[in-house]
Batch of 4 targets.
Target 1
Amino acid sequence: MTDASFPADITPAQLDTERRFVRITGERPGGFIEFDFAVGEPELFVEMILSRPAFEEFCEMNQVQTMGPAQDSGPEDRMADFAWSLRDATGKRFK
């Protein structure tokens, strides 16, 4: 896709793929770490699970920055029905 394919008033966002982020979201029996991993933008992440040694190696290899706890947008957010993660899926009833 070239820049010419964008309307004149839209500028594509710059994404710094050198920035990597993790947020630990839980720990399972047996030493497994549940975490969110993001590249470039902390708001766009994937949920992952690794053993503690593998997690530590993963963080070192990716030179990650640690993110704070996820922010709850609250019920007033009109997209609240879509604010869930895979770890919520077993305990949340969806419409």
Note: The CA atoms of residues 15 and 41 lie 7 Å apart.
Target 2
Amino acid sequence: MKLFRKKSMEFMARQTSGDRGLKKALGAFDLTMLGVGAVIGTGIFVMTGVVAALYSGPAIILSFIFSGLACAFAALCYSEFSSMIPSSGSAYTYSYTVFGELIAWILGWDLILEYGLACSVVASGWSAYFQALIHGFGWQLPHAISSSFNPAQGTYFDGMAAVILLVLALILISGTKESARINNIVVLVKIGVILLFLAVGVFYVRPSNWTPFMPFGFSGVIKGAATAFLAYIGFDAVSSASEEVRNPQRDMPIGILSSLGICMVLYISVSIVLTGMVPYRQLNVGDPVAFALQVIHQNWVAGFVSLGAILGITTVLFVMMYGQTRLFFAISRDGLLPQPIAQLVGRAKTPIVAIGLTWLMATIFSGLIPLDKLAELTNIGTLFAFIMVALGVYILRIKRPDLDRKFKVPFIHVVPFLAILSCGYLMIHLSGITWGFFLIWLIVGLVIYFSYSYWHSLVGLSDKKKEATES
């Protein structure tokens, strides 16, 4: 049973108090902007074209609705947890209190894969848009460093992805409040660019482009939803900020749910206009929104969109990197990874080692692994995390009804199970290769746990001290 030792609320309170915890600097608006910053970016500016061309066709609208609903059910569960347990680590920390250490480690290891790959997906998309932008000025990167490792096409490393990852790592080191201010400004610019695209593109919509509406059948819509799911995972990163929020009981549910609602409206609107402007078969490009504007000869708007996309995708990358650093910090603070990773430095109290580790992991993945493979691997990790959080909320409501909950999931006997069923349904539609890599990753994680984490767990060491004192 020591494999399932749990972290108590009192233990977490000691961890997050005083100098041992992260600096509290965020409010509800900051959280909403973090959520919109993370959710609106790659999904609109990159994944819309891939999903429409390969899986859903014009029915990408339904794909985004289905994946958005699955996220909405999970978001309600995250909101209850984040308002009740204001500690870094997101789903990893929640699982530690409900299921125990082994399950928490499995989920934390899974989230390391999710965030690491998400950072890489977004960095690859950022690189594609940046190169499209400078190409308009007649500039071009050396072909060998223009994309991920593919010797058959003469590319060996994505150089611009590595550059933007380094820049954002340096911004994260400056501190949470300073980083949030930059994010807020860029998010507002990003929303303005999307509204500009909608305002111009709606006049070039041809209803004939929506026929056939479902060219790949309903299975294609679901496959598209499973892939497009990547677009919505930002609120998971928002929940990782709970330890740095001034009033988490009130602000966390507001930030998570409001950002998801805003983003669903924008995704559906862009999907309708984009597939109406250009036949879906032509959208399998790295910059589909700018491409659609070029097709209708609105190059000046395409230039603004490319610039806005770069800024927008930057905020997604920033929030994903932020979530990854807080995950490394939380797991290391518990002793399941080497504790120096959780070291806080300077007045801003930033985990510099965790930030450096995040940069290194994302740089390697984005430089070497193709975009489509990165997206599927990210999704399977996220879906698994959402399922565990939904199950955890239900179990904790039954076992610990006495806990103070500022936000409660409505229809507790229904919503968590809708989250589990919808996320599970999307998981089974991912490819066998994705499942195989996911299982290999979990096996590696179990080896690390039993060889290192189990023996260095602070919860385990605390339990041993109690046993020694009692004896």
Note: The chain has a mean pLDDT of 83.
Target 3
Amino acid sequence: MSLVVEHRPQESRFVVALSAQGPFAQLDYEVAGAVCTFTHTIVPPEFRGQGVAAQLVEAGLAWARAQQLRVVPACSYVHTYIQRHREWQDLLS
């Protein structure tokens, strides 16, 4: 499933509309100094297992890298994702 991930910096989150009227999936974060903490990944149950969370996390990590931020994976999904995808491990704070 290829989705459009929207970055909403004013809300400190990345969002995917899963249909024209919603629902939404999101990846929330907090930035303090040069550190980005990913706090929550939320995907509605009926869309789990379809790669939605992975696309959100990829977008978030790519943004953090572009901003030269270190990453703290407070969210268990983000933590597991980084452990499984070594190309992102250099971002860990």
Note: The first strand starts at residue 6 and ends at 8.
Target 4
Amino acid sequence: MESHLVSLARIPFSVLDLAPIVQGQTAAQAFDNSVRLAQHAEHLGFERFWVAEHHNINGIASSATAVLIGHIAAQTRTIRVGSGGVMLPNHAPLIVAEQFGTLESLFPGRIDLGLGRAPGTDGVTQQALGRSPRSGLDFPDLLEELRGYFRPARSGQPVRAVPGEGLDIPIWLLGSSDFSARLAAGLGLPFSFAGHFSPEGMAAMHLYRQLFKPSATLARPHAMICVPVVAADTHAQAQRLATTQQQKFLSLVRGNRLQLQPPVDDMAALWTEQEEWAVRHRLAAAIVGDAATVEAGLQDLLRRTQADEIMIVGDFHDIRDRLRSYEILAEIKARQV
């Protein structure tokens, strides 16, 4: 659709962060890196900085998502900070409303609430969180309960979110399939697709647009795509740095999650042919290379998805390489003006 082939300069860039723990470092160092990245992204003009909820995963420190959002928001000034996302089946909706009502009250106009329906962990850990595996099936009901707490209080309302009620906190639905795309479209909510680990489901972006119904929240659909990007000054350097994210997904395929590993010169000695296929399949949407390669990849992504916004996740062993990758992305945007 030629009418939607817009310049990257007009597309907001945002950041997804999992507070990754680098091999040999601590969660405290991961949080310092997250703050450093958020401040860098703010300086570069990025739109949002979202933190993803995960539990019982070695190498990911973003389990207490609302706490980390508050920490990052307190050390930035203008960038929107939010969840990408909070896994609603893990929590009572009232707790989520109170937590994000508190965040919005502390940082007015800067908080986003992205919601997912997956547990973000394994079944045993989900039970330890005190939630039923069935909670994901009841996601629409949980969502409606949560949205109710953010509405102005009604006369005689027995349970209220204080703070929370009456606050205008943007709610996004996140998904890796068409379930959340359909639900977001029907409710007139913004939608974010998890292309960083589920590239085969990008048709959900188009389905969301086709089924969208205007609401008091949105008059038109607003879809964001999340993708992994590894940008470096040379193509060869980017390819080498990308072996860190390849090792991360290899450990996921093997069921043995590791902390972020240093890059290697050659992955051939680390994986089997079947494992290589599985990793490359999961990272099929990844954009890796120098500025020209990344720019072309982002333009192709826009053409295929018609995204209104691009959220970028990047796994790097060295925080300096991570910061440089986002600098290159900002430089690409600036050249498009």
Note: Residues 27-44 form the longest helix (18 residues).
